[in-house]
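Changelog excerpt

This revision adds worked examples to the README so contributors can see how folded entries look when concatenated. The first example is reproduced verbatim below.
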Amino acid sequence: MEQLLNDFSPGLFVMQTLIMLVLIFIMAKYAWKPIMNSVEKREEGIKDALEAAEAAKKEMQNVTADSERLLQEARAERDALLKEARDIKANIISEAKEQAQAEGDKMIKQAQATIESEKKAAVADIKAQVANLSVEIAEKVIKEELSDKGKQQKLVEDMLGDIKLN
């Protein structure tokens, strides 16, 4: 530091101060405004970029909220469609069971009617066969009975006895 004090020259100091003042004046006159404008533009650009980032962030939140809402709506619609499909399935199954029950009842009634008619036909056939057999047996018995005159007389008297007059 002592050497600086020993080498100090007032003329040089004044000259350097004058050059510095001239440089400051030139800078203030010509360079200060463009530098300040550039700094202000840069500051404005940064501010606009921050605003744009904030707007993009809000837009992303809106898009996210919209997509979440759409997803919820799609899920609700899917659930409604599944519920409707289950209801339709249950209705179809119920209708099919009812129709099958009705068809089964109808078939049972038809089978019962067929069995009843076949039973009546069988009973009628048996009655006819019994009647034929009875006639044949009666014919043989009567032939046997009527072959003898005394037996014929007795049969006629028994039959007359059975008949009641009103």
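The second example, added in the same revision:
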Amino acid sequence: MADADDVRRLALALPHVVEIDSDGFDFRVADKGFVWSYPERRPGKPGVIRTDIAVLYVGDEAEKQALLLGEPEVFFTTPGYDGLPLVMVRLAQVDVDRLDELVTDAWRMRCPASLADDPGAAGRVR
């Protein structure tokens, strides 16, 4: 079972990552978000930052659909994310090793090749 502290630890272990000040967590590489807290919005109610749910960059619609259909207990989406390569991850439903894989893959897809190829990046990234 993973949590927000695991997201923070895993994201910050990756090269060139910056944490943006927020009520939850928000990580970027080269000014591109790859994982952040889910900003839940309900009609007629104030938004709530959910640190038990991570929004994760997945690259494309095919990967998004594969995750949503293959593991609906772990991944979900909302109409506000239609057409975007993002899924929400219920952190309590993944272990830390799986979260590490998801966060690293999201980072890899958002990180420019020039930064990913940096010799300093080689130690952590699989």
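Reviewer comment on example two: Residues 122-126 have pLDDT under 50 and may be disordered. Residues 7 and 19 are 11 Å apart (CA to CA).
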